[in-house]
Design a protein that fits this description.
single chain; Vanillyl-alcohol Oxidase, Chain A, domain 3; 551 residues; Uridine Diphospho-n-acetylenolpyruvylglucosamine Reductase, domain 3
């Protein structure tokens, strides 16, 4: 099958790997901005030098044409893109590869694959674009299953239908961000959903993980754009009615959103779209401290202005992204509209900023690119660093640098203490397991009238070969602090396998029982992404194996 190949271990495609000189330059620049000493760059273990566990099951003959079981297909679908995933792939460690990868070309093939998997006791792990940073696509399934299949829908990537009157579009779930937007652009439309993983992540993955886009206010979580969704479950078709809104019981679309592949496979959706914005303005505002900027952002979030971008970045992170010199926090502020100029809205927002001691630029700029990005130099530098961060992280792994992120949300009344305690927990953990030289930075990714989504980044020198233990200690310390202080374990990165212990503590137990019951109804053999969100209630004899392996 002629498909551009992902790197088997890191971010992007094989043809995007940096040349040695370019990688060295990137590493040198990263070391300077992180204040770390540059050591020798380690090279990834070639796939030819790795040994994967052998497949336990083979594809059924009727579906063999859409299945692959070669080393590259299995390795590139064995991990997501978390720091630990990248380190594991970099070192050539693929402990839980799928037995084979299925790439259906039509919905009927999805249906046949699920039927076979349910009958043979084989787990199904939807892959999306493979950008999960929480273990959501790793085929690490209980031993009671006879195997695991990675389900890759990227061949289902078409814009099927446009309703220009209602401003909606029917799109297949395997469409990645760039292809999706290119097809909509032919109609003068946009979905206006730009997560950091936009280049590779897919519409179905966005819905399944309740992904949030680049925009800081208003519609930002993907479920706000879903008009109707369609999924194939082991028990049959899940199809909701196209409606602008409904109060008819629990929303079937909202149940699918965030289900992370545990209920079925999302194959297409009607999405609310809009004309491409013609009016954009942005500015970067400096604040003496992160907390001073936070008070300003709180007023902005409650003002009704609803800027498209309202990202507050602390001084250390501003310096790391070349958007500041480390002496001030930076607010990246932007407005956009499909209908009218936004100069007045930006002017009023800047007045609010000045009232909180913000240093306002003399002249705000017209935002460049998607999502109110450009403007002054600081905003442009931040945006370039934001889009390039996943690529840089691969270089950080080669440098021997631990880099992990934690995104959460909290109400405004608890924010200051929450920020202090979570950051302190992260810094203490870094000192204990990495020594001196580590740091924890913070920024707001999204803001609401009742609170911000806070995004913490932990960076420190790692001990090569011990990254997993170091990562686990930092992950546990920060996640424990987030839950103890009343925050959510995730704002937009989903739960996956990595967040399960803290998600179990966050959710109400009656809800867990209700969700398990719903899963049992549509997935009676429990084959859909087992280990994610909830333990399945498998409706078969508990003393028997799930199925008989096929050869």
């Amino acid at each position: 099958m002629n498909i551009r190949r992902f790197k088997h271990w890191g971010w992007g495609y094989e043809d995007q790997q940096l040349a040695p000189d370019a990688q060295r330059q990137t590493a040198q620049l990263a070391a300077e901005h992180l204040g770390l000493e540059l050591t020798d760059l380690e090279q990834p273990v070639p796939l030819s030098q790795t040994t994967l566990p052998g497949p336990r099951v083979a594809p059924p003959p009727a579906l063999a044409e859409i299945c692959e079981s070669d080393e590259h297909a299995r390795a590139s679908h064995a991990l997501g893109k978390s720091y630990l995933d990248v380190v594991s792939g970099f070192r050539g460690r693929f402990r839980h590869p799928p037995d084979f990868v299925a790439r259906p070309r039509e919905e009927a093939e999805v249906e046949r694959l699920l039927e076979w998997c349910a009958g043979e006791g084989v787990a199904v792990v939807p892959f999306g674009g493979g950008t999960s940073v929480v273990g959501g696509v790793t085929p690490e399934v209980p031993s009671s299953f006879n195997g695991a299949v990675s389900l890759d829908l990227r061949a289902l990537d078409r814009l099927l239908e446009v309703d220009p009157v209602s401003r909606a579009a029917r799109i297949q779930a395997g469409a990645a961000g760039p292809a999706l937007e290119a097809q909509l652009a032919e109609h003068g439309l946009t979905l206006r959903h730009f997560p950091q993983s936009f280049e590779y992540s897919t519409l179905g993955g966005w819905i399944a993980t309740r992904a949030a886009g680049h925009f800081a206010m208003g519609r930002t979580h993907i479920e706000d754009y879903v008009e109707s969704a369609r999924a194939i479950t082991p028990a049959g078709l899940w199809q909701s009615r196209r409606l602008p809104g409904s109060g008819a019981g629990v929303s079937p679309d909202r149940v699918l959103a965030g289900s992370e592949g545990t209920l079925g496979v999302i194959t297409e959706a009607w999405m609310r779209v809009q004309p491409r914005p013609e009016h954009r303005r942005s500015a970067g505002v400096r604040f003496a401290s992160f907390l001073a900027g936070a008070e300003c952002v709180r007023e902005l979030s409650q003002s009704g202005l609803e800027p498209a971008n309202c990202r507050l970045i602390d001084a250390r992170e501003a310096a790391m992204t070349m958007a500041g010199d480390g002496s001030h926090a930076l607010l990246v502020l932007g407005f956009e509209s499909t209908d009218h100029p936004v100069d007045d809205a930006l002017a009023r927002a800047l007045q609010i900023c000045a009232g909180h001691g913000g240093v306002v630029p003399e002249r705000a700029g017209a935002a460049g690119g998607e999502g109110a990005g450009g403007g002054d130099d600081a905003v442009g530098s931040w945006r370039e660093a934001f889009l390039g961060a996943p690529y840089v992280r691969d270089t950080l792994v080669a440098m021997g640098v631990l880099a992990e992120t934690f995104e959460t949300a909290i109400t405004w009344d608890r924010f200051a203490l929450f920020h202090e305690r979570v950051k302190a927990a992260g810094e203490e953990a870094l000192r204990e397991v990495c020594g001196e030289g580590g740091r924890v930075t913070a920024r707001f990714t999204h803001v609401y009238p009742d609170g911000p989504a806070v995004y913490f980044t932990a960076i420190a020198p790692a001990r090569r070969g011990e990254e997993a233990a170091q990562w686990t200690a930092v992950k546990r310390a920060v996640s424990d602090a987030i839950i103890a202080e009343g925050g959510t374990i995730t704002h937009h990165h989903a739960v996956g396998r990595d967040h399960r212990p803290w998600y179990d503590a966050q959710r109400p137990e009656p809800f867990a029982l209700a969700f398990a019951g719903a899963k049992a109804a549509v997935d009676p053999r429990g084959v859909m992404n087992p280990g994610v969100l909830v333990e399945p209630r498998v409706l078969i004899d508990p003393g028997a194996r799930v199925g008989a392996a096929a050869s």
